[in-house]
Known about the structure:
Oligomer: single chain
Number of strands: 35
CATH topology of the domain at 369-452 and 598-741: Rossmann fold
Bound molecules: beta-D-glucopyranose
Amino acid sequence: xxxxxxxxxxxxxxxxxxxxxxxxxxxxxxxxxxxxxxxxxxxxxxxxxxxxxxxxxxxxxxxxxxxxxxxxxxxxxxxxxxxxxxxxxxxxxxxxxxxxxxxxxxxxxxxxxxxxxxxxxxxxxxxxxxxxxxxxxxxxxxxxxxxxxxxxxxxxxxxxxxxxxxxxxxxxxxxxxxxxxxxxxxxxxxxxxxxxxxxxxxxxxxxxxxxxxxxxxxxxxxxxxxxxxxxxxxxxxxxxxxxxxxxxxxxxxxxxxxxxxxxxxxxxxxxxxxxxxxxxxxxxxxxxxxxxxxxxxxxxxxxxxxxxxxxxxxxxxxxxxxxxxxxxxxxxxxxxxxxxxxxxxxxxxxxxxxxxxxxxxxxxxxxxxxxxxxxxxxxxxxxxxxxxxxxxxxxxxxxxxxxxxxxxxxxxxxxxxxxxxxxxxxxxxxxxxxxxxxxxxxxxxxxxxxxxxxxxxxxxxxxxxxxxxxxxxxxxxxxxxxxxxxxxxxxxxxxxxxxxxxxxxxxxxxxxxxxxxxxxxxxxxxxxxxxxxxxxxxxxxxxxxxxxxxxxxxxxxxxxxxxxxxxxxxxxxxxxxxxxxxxxxxxxxxxxxxxxxxxxxxxxxxxxxxxxxxxxxxxxxxxxxxxxxxxxxxxxxxxxxxxxxxxxxxxxxxxxxxxxxxxxxxxxxxxxxxxxxxxxxxxxxxxxxxxxxxxxxxxxxxxxxxxxxxxxxxxxxxxxxxxxxxxxxxxxxxxxxxxxxxxxxxxxxxxxxxxxxxxxxxxxxxxxxxxxxxxxxxxxxxxxxxxxxxxxxxxxxxxxxxxxxxxxxxxxxxxxxxxxxxxxxxxxxxxxxxxxxxxxxxxxxxxxxxxxxxxxxxxxxxxxxxxxxxxxxxxxxxxxxxxxxxxxxxxxxxxxxxxx
Length: 900
Ligand code: BGC
């Protein structure tokens, strides 16, 4: 393409007034350029004929299919013109948010307010909320970049249709420890390559809908422990090779309009005040031209953040505001150009997305059909994201004859479980697990909810209810409560709009079986429970565990009871302030009890499905999660499995949980993550075989938490507000890299996931070309192998390609994921597949050179069905060492769609 000619034409166009919309300028420029002897040839413009003109005038204004350099150049120039005319006061006010989620309007320059919404798993801030999608780990478990793009497009469409211009997601932090409270939001799993492969498609999917994506949280936001203060100590090589990689891929390939820097500190600097990360790496070395916004009130020092490279202080400029920054600009401490650059970056993104041209509707226009379309994507992600971890004797799929199925666990009858915090969507409609099972079961089947084995505050039996003595501001009221399932925000208080200060309930229960029973209480305060005078629950002071968005954590206890005997129950409650009722939180009291011993008829069911795990009660933003299952679930599941050999466990969680106490005893395990509002449909389809599972674990699940390679480097006890540092001294050896280095066998390995089909692998070979690598971004080798579906059922297999250097000169993991392919195969079908590798597949980060280095030497390229199920390998010898630039090299092979 004749760039000079094009540039001349553009330059002419840019003499237009800035009031003229960019798309008109661009179209004129392109017109002129094409008109001059038809000089625009080859590449995008000529190849698509008039397509570039059409898209320039279309939905996304200067986004769309015009060449990047043209769109960016025009927007840069227009943004410059606006910035030149702004006063210092206007600029300094522009770089602080509205106080909510939004970017301020500036009418004088036709800059509209930009409305943003949380978050990565659906549009939370509309009324009603948008579709609730499965957890990030579910998306990662699909290993499907095309589906990742569909998900991104769906989330982007929801965002636009529900009246926003910016969605505050997706999140691509790494799964480092099983404690990470926000693991459920994040889409990288434990592997940088997996995140790097999924992120660009999701972000481009969102942004092609004409809304901004916000890539978050930059960086090392891998735990919630003391989240505003915790300092992550991580060495540079580890940062580059693990934690930054998904961000790098997203920035270089998909160009997110916006990045959110995180709450944690990195090597001593608050993340939004880290010049090394924001300016040196992201903006200079990667060439990022969008803007960086702070996580909400993350900035401590406005001057430092401004100089480090944070462009806007959200939500309201507490650090970067006129009062703080004007004197510093006037005395030269902060160069004027630093402020100009921030405004420029934000304005440029408004221009690129056509937001200055009225593409900023705030109306909720989503139709029922549009919502259905999004639900379809949510269901597809759930179906491909559910991982079949174990399936002894082909227990699943369940038979197609009429069945008697027992379903246990309150999580099967509630709204689909989800994580707590800003990514929590309160689903407007949903299919829960039991309804999904009912819908998919063969006709004539009976599906029974075994409530006596389920901790369900909506059904908890008692001899004749409870008598509650409530007090508020010195007044006392007595009331009979049939159940203690009381939500103060939904009118349950006897004092109207005032919540009780305290309450005491007494009642009686009569168990129907002898043995262990579990009691659970969830309350926004201090609670104690006694059974016949014996205290089995006491949560101490009952105060919130973290200062920011505190969850309402339940407590439980067990006791052995006798069938037929009446027991006195006494509950004391004292409300404490600061609890949340939104984001998956709760203000009120919920009490339940259940038997851990099976009902006598449990063996007679054809199959039992136990739905367990965590949920917003136990994990989410602001606090770290348990690895051990709460509520005596281990004992419950083991007892059920002993009573019925056809027991399937459906696990809902945002990360790994301990399964050791029962996993050898149950027939099947489906790891269903948080499945979104269509989760029950997906589960039903998988249980009965309408959908063949194809998900693979994006994380390693350990047998014991102390097996995790980061265990020594997590400052237990959890959620301590005294922790100041987390030392990532395990370096590169997280997840399977660490398990392999230490020779520890996990419960379930990274990449593991079963299917109802069986697959054979064969003939693995690698062909290399182009050495030395002329272009960092090109394909330098191809791994070929054959996969055969050896079963009678159509199914999909995710084949994984790992690369390891045989005798590295520096410490390197034994092998690392560097490619994968998901193949659909008919019964008996056999296919030869090819997975491309680029130079980075062989590289490590050399901190002394600030460059990627590929060493001369021998490498093993292996192909597996999981990290611990290698099916074949080939040797590659690289005859020459080579250095790859931080600017040009890419963590993944550039996807075709991005080569425009
Ligand atoms: C979270 C962000 C979120 C923001 C706005 C913060 O607490 O960390 O992920 O986008 O709140 O709600």
